[in-house]
Fold this sequence. Notes:
heterodimer, A: mainly beta, Folate-binding fold, B: alpha/beta, eight-stranded mixed sheet, globular
Amino acid sequence: MIITCPHCGPRDLAEFSYKGDATRTRPGTASGDLAHWNAYVYERENPAGQHREFWQHTGGCRKHLIVTRDTLTHAISHVEFPPTKAPRRSGA
Amino acid sequence: MAEYSAWQVLRHALTGNTGWKPAWRKPEPKPRYDVIVIGGGGHGLSTAYYLAKNHGITNVAVCEKGWLGSGNIGRNTTIVRSNYLLEGNTPFYEHSMKLWESLSHELNYNVMFSQRGIINLCHSPAQMDDAARRGNAMRLFGVDARMVMPDELARRVPGLDLSRTARFPILGGLEQPRAGTARHDAVAWGYARGADRRGVDILENCEVTGFLRDGDTVTGVQTTRGEILADKVAVCVAGSTGRVMKLAGIDRLPIESHVLQAFVSESLKPLIDTVVTFGGGHLYISQSDKGGLVFGGDIDGYNTYAQRGNLPIVEDVMAETVALFPALARVRLLRSWGGIMDMSMDGSPIITTGPLPGMYLNCGWCYGGFKATPASGWCFAHTIAKDEPHPLNAAYSLDRFHRGYVIDEKGQGATPWKH
């Protein structure tokens, strides 16, 4: 598997670390919504097909990436940087 | 009289071996069953067997997408052990071990269970302490465990690099003498034959394509061989859990599917007569009766349903093999393959009623499902028959994640690709 890092170009899988499902939304730090926290920590869609997932280019630029990859074929259709962080808000 | 015995071999030999019967029938699906088990792998077949044998429920169908035993039951590295640390796990896996010990007689089918022992090597004083702790925990549960030291290792496993200059010098290890290996295909065939003889219909090439519902309640399945009704539908599909449960409208589970690769070398003269695991990385290796070394390591570490992996893990596993057994450097690899693992969020399985009425779920075996085959079916059959878990699988609930009762042997947290 070769991942094309938008910063470094096409690099071998061995240079990257997997960071998991990128479709989950993290509740706000002060949120007491346990169902939302549980879903965020433990529940996964685990699709057979297109999967949006975090990778980090640990053996290169160390940037975090969002990769869209087909879990049936390993074909990668899109690689992008995660959106820039919104300013921190308090509450949920 | 037993169907397979020395006398039968002799009798059939004298009559030209024309009298053997097929090990299981190829029945047409009936319109309705008491229980449908989805998945004709090891766990599904043992579930059907114990439903019939322990609970007298014989109007059972096993729906298998492909041919019998075409999934992980035929793709594993055949290791059987019960060397677990935590309370939720140890009694369950020890129950499995006890079932293994009488399985060939139970099934009248030689599953070639060989209690050759497993040795988990340690490479640091901290690892030795950890091994002693695990060994003590095992012994408290009545499981056999002992520490082995390098002089004994030199006698028992001659190929090991025990030099002080090794990258990860070996200080000793933890042994479970009753652990070992079994012939994986025979386990599937033995359970299939045992279930079939008790009246279970094994429906091969019968893929489940949907669930029949009455409101929330599951009342049967749609398959490529037509609709089949059932009072109870049990899902037992390992790496395909996400896909099958989606058909029932369950979109999210504490499961990710990952690929685990395994490897077999060319045949060698007897070299390793036990199972050895490497503590400096992740490697487990044994030698089959045919002489091939059977070994594997970590999962590839990214979500996938493709039954093939990538080269970094291949390189990693080979490097570890040669680090442990330098003499194997020139041995050639015969074949490698991948199987899809249902990696759970805490590394422990799920055997439960629900999540829908009329449905039962067995999944989350990560890459340790083979050793659990007998107890998994035994407990799942109990759960299906009684509509409540047996004490042995009570901890393997689906809601343990919500409630905070995870069973995390490695203390890894909800990162399934690292379990």
